[in-house]
Structures are given as structure tokens and as C-alpha cells.
Design brief:
The chain is an alpha/beta fold. Among the domains are: about 180-350, Valyl/Leucyl/Isoleucyl-tRNA synthetase, editing domain (Isoleucyl-tRNA Synthetase, domain 2), CATH 3.90.740.10; about 810-875, Helix Hairpins (Orthogonal Bundle). The protein has 26 helices and 31 strands. Strand 1 (about 35-40), helix 2 and strand 2 (about 75) form a beta-alpha-beta unit.
């Protein structure tokens, strides 16, 4: 098989992905091996690959490929989430563009459009993940609206209802007027926005007196049903029993007194709008106030809005302020910074709204999840600083609003048979519901036609919190083989933004249904930002197209570029230069392989330098393997990659290959060549999880392999005992070589000219690498001496002194001048450092780290002066 001169990623990526797929390397079934399981955080079915997906799924693929190499039965379950709000919004927009109003359709007709949309666009992101190299078990692909997945969700709802955890209640909820559905508290994002504070005048009925009330939302006065004052506020005690007139609508409302009001805040008077504020709702209940809802579901004003009916709330805000000013009811306005709740999905400003909704009680359910992370550490978060976030959310949890006013999703399995609030039953099927309704009412004449199912759908998160169990059928059939084998899963890789939405809820569900954690480790990635630190978004135009990056830099280059700076929980400042660095690394690996394969073999004796090089690199490989394993154990994926990167680029390419490289047009001995290939293969195994395409390509070029010998199912390098002294000794030897190279460069001594080396070995340094020093420095002879050599160039490595006898190529006079100038400069530098260290004020006031740094400068300068003086002495 000929080896191309250039590595062209796009020529080999599809070839090897198809090869892996055709040989079922990604497929996993239960067997005798230990399972290693990851479930993908299911992306929205309507989504396309973005940089966050690229990072998250690359990390998962690294973990799953490494597990496969380590002999685990690796199973990575892919899938997508039906994303109720996002998908329904897209389908509604599509229908609107076609002149179809959702409200004119039946539920069944709308769902057909939704399924058509899903089938057309739903597989896009999963296909894109394949281009990235993701080795998911595609035969296990799940969708949260699959029949079995939906059945699991319905089963869970019924079970929790029967246990008393789910209830229906009339509560103040977060209403998204764009999606026209309620949201849970966690789906509301609070943003600081500049607005206005309006000071409104309410006339006291039957008098000319006014009270002034400040509000950020003047349009809500149309829903006011009281004015509230603190019972000890002497300014207003005379108003007890009085009433006020709401401007514009002229509704007469009572003045009530309640300790809820802060006398020191504003004017001390509070307008009460029970239908549009959760605290006002509580006041309304205590004082039996009327509840007036002034909004339609899309946040336009209804008939209570009088002449503003049908207009958007923000339009009305400006217009009503003008009318209030016209009628003299607006005392003043002032700028005001306010926290505004917005929808996590649609970004619309949330409206508090009273509504009948379904809730899940969380107080008891959450306790095992708190214990698992914060006490027993059965589940570990990486980095652990997110434990505090987790604690805050779970210890302050409120009941979960799980119903959504949507059609796309699992329809709530509640069936109504009457008009009363309790005239319903909850069941998994209509048949079971009819049976329960007949039993509950004692009316055996009830028919299916007498029942109507709740129109709402369940929150998407109520589906995905079962994901690790449901994908293996664990909710419907907890005794099935897959579930018992693969659950609990091992690692979860996701973003900290859904630590509560999804991660915590999966832990809650795991302990409720399996009495077991859903996973052991949670690796929380950071956000991918641009190099200016801005979050990547389409609106800013700062997010590159992932598939274009793969086209330009290759999948391996992009993977490396992302991971080199992807430390757990820390945001990535992404720059395309990172991908260029990844591509350059791929080229470096390819060229190293071509170099080795280009050597001519011969049955000759193995050089001493090659023997020492192999011994060193085998030790260095084992030394680095320990570092890599440690990094993986701590989920420092970026550090693990950097260790492998340095091992290959610095140690293998820059040192090892130079040590064993045969002379110009000379052959290499077979023993060294075979060892070089063996060590290259070990490197490829370490690199494979990060750069799967390139490594498989080289692996298959090295030798003819059967499918069973493919790199993807190879063996991770085994840890072996090694001589650690070789690693440290070579670090010393490499400095010796660097010293020779520096002198050659500074003195213009060509490498073809052999030199002699004389060593005063005060460090008792090992002589094991002398053959390598001789080869890489083109040293004709190495001699250990007792004292300095006169008439020689010299340098130091620690306290060892190295002398290179002068040849006729060196201008002694010019060298003396150069060294004298450098000596004088270094003495001046030393003097300035010592002046600092003799200054008591500086020493007593400076941080210890600064003092240590100055002392190091002093020691380095003294050593350099000694070397320069010695070099000058040898030249004179």
C-alpha cells in the first residue's frame, strides 16, 4: 500500500467511518465483559450541530473509544429529544407560512405535521455527529417520542400520581406568551433591563385626596383590585375603611392593610393585582379580593383592557402612560433597572398567570439525590465546585410544574368525566381510564365517549429525566437483560447550564425508580466562547459552522483544537488557530510515520545510541502513561491530550526519531526499526480516542490487518514497571546536547565538523546516554576529566562542566570581546538584584513568591558569571 506524501483528512474520514460501521465496532450487546456506558445528552430533534455539541460529543467519543481500547464493553446510546416548545414553534411557523392556523387544526392533524417535520429534519444532527467521528451504537438510537419512550413517561406519571406525588392545582405560573404555555421556575431566566418606574395617582373615593403608587407596569392597573398599606403606617391610618378609584377604568377598589407592605419602600402604598403577581395573589387570598386577568394567552389585553383590548402589553404600556399623563394621573416617571423574567426557550418576557396545572411534589423525592452527591458522593461532579450550585438548587426546590399547553409531546394521561375539579381519573390507557371512572362514580353506563383526555402535554424534561433508564427499557421492564447489564451508566458529559434541568432530575428519577444512581461521574464542560470571550451565537455571527471547520481542518484537527483548551467546567475561548494547530499535529504524526517507513532496512548491528534511545523512550512512554491515566481519572481530558501531544511531538519526533535515524543514505537495523514501529503503534493507541481517523489510517498502513486487528478494537498500552531514572537522566542528557548545539550555533561550527567533549562530572551524571550525546552533537570523543580544560569553550549543566577544545574555526579575540561584554552586563544585573535583596523594606513587604524569584535570579546570575569567567580564562 503506497503512502501518500500529504495527509488529506477528507479522503480517509468516510472510508474509515464506513469501515467501522460495516464491521459493527460500535455495536454493543451484553456479554461477559464489564460494561462501560454513556448516554448522549439528547439534542433537540430539530437542531443542527453547533460548537457546544462538537465539544460535548468529542469528549464523549474520547471516553468511549478509550474504554473500548481498555477492554470494556463500550456502549454509547445516541438519540434526540422531542423539544416540545422549540419543535412546536417551528411547526407552527411553517404552517403559518403555508397559510394554516394551528387553531384551525385538530390535534391529530397538527401532530401529523409535527411528525412530518421530525422525519424530514430529525436525523440531521445525528448524521453530522458521524462526520465528527462519534462512535455511537446507532442501532440503539432513541427518540423521546418513540412508542416505548412515551409509554415509559406515561407509566411514570401514573405511578407518581398513585403515590401521591402528582397533583392538579390552580396556581400562579410562569406563562410564555409566545409559546403559549406555562414554564417551570427553572426555565425562566432573569435579566437586568433598563425600564421606567411610573408614579401613579389614585383618587380616594368621595374626596380630592390622592395616594401615589409606583409601578414598572402601568398597564396592569386595569387588573387592580385593592391598594395595600402597612397597618402601622401613620401617614395613611385615616384611610382605613376607605376606597380608591383606579385611573382610566374608574373601578372602585378597597384600601386594605397588611404587614406585607414595606413602609420604607417607595410611597408605602402598594397596588394589588392578584391575577398578575404571585405575592399579590397571596394578599388577594388573605383579603378575599377579586381576581381580574387582563391578558389573553398571547399577552394582548382582553376585554378588561377596555379600549386597549387586542393590543400587545408593551404597546399598551406606552399608550396608557400617555393617557395617564393626559388625565393628570401620572405624577412622574424615572429610569429604573429591573430584573425581568424571560423564557429560556423563546426569550419572551414571562407573564405571571393563574392557571390550572399539574405539579410534582419535590420535597421528598429530592432527598436521595442530595445525599448521593453531597454526602455519600455516589455521584461525583467534575469540577466539584458545582456541588455548591447543585446544593442551592435542590435545597431550595419547589414543586415542579410538569404540564405544558402544547400538543407536541406526551399527552397527560388524565381523563375527565364530569365538570367538577375532582371529576377525573389517571390511567395509562383509555380502557383503563374508563374502568377506573366506572369504579369511582359507580356508573357502569359510562362509555369511552363520556371521557375526555387532558389536552396538555408533559414538560419535555419530564420525559428526558428518565433517559438513562428508559433507553434500556428499565421503566417498563426493569428485569430485562439490557437494563440490568448497562444501568447504572458510567459517565455523563453535559453543560452546567442543565445541571438542574436534567442532571439533578435524572438523579432524582434514578433513586425513585431503580433505587440507584443513574451514572457515577458527571463531567461538566464549559461554554464555547469566541476569542473575545463572547458566548457564541448566530445572532452575533461569531459562531463558525462546525462542518466547515471539519472540511478545512479535518475532523481530527477540529477535535484536537477543541480539546486542547477544554478543561472541565471552564469556558473555552475558541480560535480557529486551535484547529490549525490540530491539523498541524496531524501532519506531524503523518510525516513521522512516513519518515520511519521510508528508511531502508538491513541486517546490521544495532548502534549503542539506538539501544539507549529505545530504553529511554519505553520508560518515557510508561512515565507519560501514568500521567495520562491520572488525568483521565480526574476528567482532565485537556491535560491528558496535552501529555500525549508532548509525548509524540517532543519526545517521539524531536528526540527519539533523531536518536535512531540512520545517517544520510544509510540503512537502519531491523531491531531498531521493529522497535520504532512498535513504539509508534503504542503512540497511535494513545492518540486514537482523540484522533480516530488519522490513527486508524496509519495503523492500517503499517501492516495488513484483519478486521479483528483494527485499531478501534486494539488494546490500550499496558502499564509496566519501568526505570524512572532513565527519564530523569535523559532530561539531564538533553540539556548537555542542547548546550553543544548552542555552542555550535553561536560559534558557527558546522554540524559536519566533529568536536571533542571533555566533562568534569561533579553531578556524577549517568553515562548511559553518552552514545546519544555523541550522535546528536557529532562528538568524536567524550572524555571525563578532573579539572577544567584550558583553551576550550565551556558551558554548565547544573554543576557539571563541559569543555569543547577550540578549533581553528573560532576567532579567539572576537570571542573574548563578546564574553567580556556579556560578563559585564551580567555583573550589572546581579548588582541590581542584590540591591533589592539588601533593601529591608522590600524584603519585609514583598510577597514570598516575589522574594523567591529574586533569589533565583541572583543564583542564576552568579552561576552564569562563574561560567563566563571560566570561559574567558580558558581563552586567555
Amino acid at each position: 500500500m503506497s503512502i501518500p506524501a500529504q495527509f488529506e483528512a477528507k479522503n480517509i474520514e468516510k472510508k474509515w467511518y464506513d469501515y467501522w460501521m460495516n464491521h459493527n465496532y460500535f455495536r454493543s450487546v451484553p456479554d461477559h465483559r464489564t460494561p462501560y456506558t454513556i448516554v448522549i445528552p439528547p439534542p433537540n430533534v430539530t437542531g443542527v450541530l453547533h460548537m457546544g455539541h462538537m465539544l460535548n460529543n468529542t469528549i464523549q467519543d474520547v471516553l468511549i473509544r478509550r474504554a473500548r481500547l481498555k477492554g470494556f464493553n463500550a456502549c454509547w446510546v445516541p438519540g434526540t429529544d422531542h423539544a416540545s416548545i422549540a419543535t412546536e414553534a417551528k411547526v407552527v411557523a411553517k404552517l403559518k407560512a403555508e397559510g394554516i392556523n394551528k387553531n384551525d387544526l385538530t390535534r391529530e392533524a397538527f401532530l401529523k405535521h409535527a411528525w412530518d417535520w421530525t422525519e424530514k429534519y430529525g436525523g440531521t444532527i445525528l448524521e453530522q455527529l458521524k462526520q465528527l467521528g462519534c462512535s455511537c451504537d446507532w442501532s440503539r438510537t432513541k427518540f423521546t417520542m418513540d412508542d416505548d419512550m412515551s409509554a415509559s413517561v406515561i407509566h411514570s406519571f401514573v405511578d407518581l400520581y398513585n403515590k401521591g406525588y402528582i397533583y392538579r392545582g390552580y396556581r400562579m405560573v410562569n406563562w410564555d406568551p409566545e409559546a403559549k404555555t406555562t414554564l417551570s421556575d427553572e426555565e425562566v431566566i432573569y435579566e437586568e433591563r433598563n425600564g421606567k418606574l411610573y408614579h401613579l395617582k389614585y383618587q380616594i373615593e368621595g374626596s380630592s385626596e390622592f395616594v401615589t403608587i409606583a409601578t414598572t407596569r402601568p398597564e396592569t392597573i386595569l387588573g387592580d383590585t385593592a391598594i395595600c398599606i402597612h397597618p402601622e403606617d401613620e401617614r395613611y391610618l385615616h384611610l382605613k375603611g376607605k376606597k380608591a378609584i383606579v385611573p382610566i377604568c374608574n373601578r372602585v377598589i378597597p384600601i386594605i392593610f397588611d404587614e406585607y407592605v414595606d413602609m420604607e419602600f417607595g410611597t408605602g402604598c402598594l397596588k394589588v393585582t392578584p391575577a398578575h403577581d404571585v405575592n399579590d395573589k397571596e394578599l388577594g387570598e388573605r383579603h378575599n379580593l377579586e381576581i381580574i386577568d387582563i391578558f389573553n394567552e398571547d399577552a394582548t389585553l382582553n376585554s378588561y383592557g377596555l379600549h386597549y383590548a387586542g393590543k400587545d402589553r408593551f404597546v399598551v404600556r406606552e399608550e396608557i402612560a400617555q393617557e395617564l399623563e393626559t388625565i393628570g394621573a401620572l405624577a412622574k416617571t424615572e429610569n429604573h433597572l429591573n430584573k425581568v423574567g424571560t423564557s429560556e426557550r423563546t426569550k419572551a418576557v414571562i407573564e405571571p398567570r393563574l392557571s390550572d396545572q399539574w405539579f410534582l411534589k419535590m420535597e421528598e423525592l429530592v432527598k436521595p439525590a442530595i445525599k448521593a452527591v453531597l454526602e455519600t458522593e455516589e455521584v461525583k461532579l467534575y469540577p466539584s465546585r458545582f456541588n455548591n450550585t447543585y446544593r442551592h438548587w435542590l435545597e431550595n426546590i419547589r414543586d415542579w410544574n410538569i404540564s405544558r399547553q402544547l400538543w407536541w409531546g406526551q399527552q397527560i394521561p388524565a381523563y375527565y368525566y364530569g365538570d367538577g375539579k375532582e371529576d377525573f381519573v389517571v390511567a395509562e390507557t383509555p380502557e383503563k381510564a374508563l374502568e377506573l371512572a366506572r369504579t369511582k362514580t359507580g356508573n357502569q353506563a359510562l362509555t369511552a365517549a363520556d371521557l375526555r383526555q387532558d389536552a396538555d402535554a408533559l414538560d419535555t424534561w419530564f420525559s428526558s429525566w428518565l433517559w438513562p433508564m428508559a433507553v434500556f427499557g428499565g421503566i417498563l421492564d426493569p428485569e430485562n437483560q439490557d437494563y440490568k447489564y448497562y444501568y447504572p451508566t458510567n459517565d455523563l458529559v453535559t453543560g452546567p447550564d442543565i445541571l438542574f434541568f436534567w442532571v439533578a432530575r435524572m438523579i432524582i428519577a434514578g433513586y425513585e425508580y431503580a433505587d440507584a444512581k443513574p451514572f457515577t461521574n458527571v463531567y461538566l464542560t464549559g461554554l464555547v466562547r469566541d476569542k473575545q470571550g463572547r458566548k457564541m451565537s448566530k445572532s452575533l455571527g461569531n459562531s463558525p459552522e462546525p462542518l466547515e471547520l471539519i472540511e478545512r481542518f479535518g475532523a481530527d484537527g477540529v477535535r484536537v483544537g477543541l480539546l486542547l483548551s477544554a478543561s472541565a467546567g471552564n469556558d473555552i475561548l475558541f480560535d480557529e488557530e486551535l484547529c490549525q494547530q490540530g491539523k498541524a499535529f496531524a501532519n506531524k504524526i503523518w510525516n513521522a510515520f512516513r519518515l520511519i517507513k521510508g528508511w531502508e532496512l538491513a541486517d546490521i548491528e544495532q548502534p549503542e545510541a539506538s539501544k539507549a534511545a529505545i530504553a529511554w523512550y519505553e520508560a518515557k512512554l510508561q512515565h507519560t502513561l501514568i500521567e495520562i491515566e491520572d488525568n483521565f481519572s480526574k476528567y482532565r481530558i485537556s491535560d491528558a491530550l496535552m501529555a500525549i501531544y508532548k509525548l509524540f511531538w517532543d519526545d517521539f519526533c524531536s528526540w527519539f526519531l533523531e536518536m535512531i535515524k540512520p545517517g544520510y543514505q544509510q540503512p537502519i537495523d531491523r531491531v531498531t526499526f521493529d522497535k520504532a514501529i512498535e513504539l509508534l503503534e503504542a503512540n497511535l493507541k494513545l492518540l486514537h480516542p482523540f484522533m480516530p481517523f488519522l490513527t486508524e489510517e496509519i495503523w492500517q498502513h503499517i501492516a495488513e490487518r484483519t478486521p479483528e486487528q483494527a485499531l478501534i478494537v486494539g488494546e490500550w498500552p499496558a502499564a509496566k514497571a519501568y526505570n524512572s531514572a532513565l527519564v530523569s537522566d535523559f532530561e539531564f542528557a538533553s540539556e548537555v546536547i542542547s548546550g553543544i548545539r548552542t555552542i555550535r550555533k553561536d560559534k558557527n561550527i558546522p554540524f559536519k565538523d566533529a568536536i571533542d567533549l571533555r566533562i568534569v562530572n561533579k553531578e556524577n551524571a549517568s553515562t548511559f546516554f553518552d552514545a546519544i550525546v555523541a550522535k546528536l552533537g557529532n562528538v568524536d570523543s567524550i572524555e571525563y576529566v578532573q579539572d577544567k580544560v584550558e583553551g576550550a569553550l565551556s558551558y554548565r549543566v547544573k554543576s557539571n562542566e563541559y569543555f569543547i577544545p577550540i578549533t581553528g574555526n573560532i576567532d579567539v579575540e572576537a570571542e573574548v570581546k563578546k564574553l567580556t561584554e556579556e560578563l559585564e552586563y551580567t555583573k550589572g544585573f546581579l548588582k541590581s538584584v542584590q540591591a533589592k535583596l539588601s533593601n529591608e523594606k522590600f524584603v519585609s513587604g514583598a510577597p514570598e513568591k516575589v522574594i523567591d524569584n529574586e533569589r533565583k535570579k541572583e543564583a542564576d546570575a552568579l552561576a552564569k558569571i562563574a561560567t563566563l569567567e571560566q570561559s574567558l580564562a580558558s581563552l586567555k
